[in-house]
Amino acid sequence: MATRIGIRSLTSQWTVVVPLLAVVALVLSWGRSLTGFAVGLVALCLAGAVLAAVHHAEVVAHRVGEPFGSLVLAVAVTVIEVALIVTLMIDGGDKTASLARDTVFAAVMITCNGILGLCLLVGALRSRIAVFNPEGTGTALATVATLAVLTLVLPTFTTSQPGPQFSPAQLGFAAVASLGLWGLFVAVQTVRHRDYFLPVTQEGDLRDEDTHADPPSRRATVLSLVMLLVALVAVVGDAKAVSPTIESGVESAGLPQAVVGVVIALLVLLPETIAAVRSARRERVQTSLNLALGSAMASIGLTIPAIALATIWLEGPLVLGLDATHMVLLALTVVVGALTVAPGRATLLQGGVHLAIFAAFVFLAISP
């Protein structure tokens, strides 16, 4: 009886109603040319779906615990992000040849500098020093760096294909290696060395799980998991609905096409950003870093294999290699990130440095 009341109370909340409205907006706007007023309504539904996704992700995370909770949101967002990229590439033709590269690299810079820097800043403001586990965080950063170099840097230097592209065999190798590394990391994170990815106290001990609130029931958790997927579908679908407006705005403003990938990545990663900042405010910086680096890893480890499969029916070139400016930013991110995570403690300065790198990325995307 109590479970039924709990579910009935949950279904009456806006976190269930808003994602459904966002899906309705997606259905009504799909494949249509939207007026300015319609774009505003879809954008409003998009914002509501983002907030609802964060709520349902936190319900699921409370039930399954860390690091499984952050993994659920990272994988769910990335799977739907992949679907969005493939859909846009099918619709866009040759002009979207670099969309996968632009979106994946933007996701890496947003997560490893924007989200990570913001969470360190919030955590340091809250407790003077943001504390996390260097073993787990360092492992995650090393995996992200390896994946980024294998898939986004090497195509610039290979010679089998003209331009910054992989040959079919090279793309297949990159896809298998990416998926294998991501799967190996998940196994280490959730099974073999799970304690490396749990929140720690200022003294470096594992933080006790919250005991002030009972975990949600299994049925309520399943409902939240379903609504999380619905909300994420609405987020990505509504983002696609407003993307023509974004593209036309970028074109009319004379901005580079890569800005579209940056905007798409920002929209899709909003749920993870909000969830990560909330965790940092609760002095759970490790959970925030799990979300940030896990999202970057999943973005590469799942996107590249999906794109490799999609090339079977996609026409036109697939540009994956970064240019010199972006390779410098990636190298700076890896070096600074390694110096940040090695001590297991960070101050306001480290957060500010990562945010400065992110600001440089955004500025150079607009003014290359």
Whole-number count of domains: 1
Shape: globular
Spatial separation of the terminal alpha carbons: 61 Å
Summed over residues and divided by their number, the pLDDT gives a mean of 82
Order of helices and strands: HHHHHEHHHHHHHEH
- Assign the CATH topology: A middle domain of Talin 1
Question: How do the strands and helices of this protein lay out in sequence?
Answer:
Elements: H1 2-11, H2 14-29, H3 36-64, H4 68-92, H5 99-127, E1 130-131, H6 134-157, H7 168-192, H8 218-252, H9 258-268, H10 270-281, H11 285-310, H12 324-341, E2 345-346, H13 348-366
Antiparallel strand pairs: 1-2
Helix pairs in contact: 2-3, 2-8, 3-4, 3-8, 3-10, 4-8, 4-11, 5-6, 5-9, 5-10, 5-11, 5-13, 6-7, 6-11, 6-12, 7-11, 8-9, 10-11, 12-13
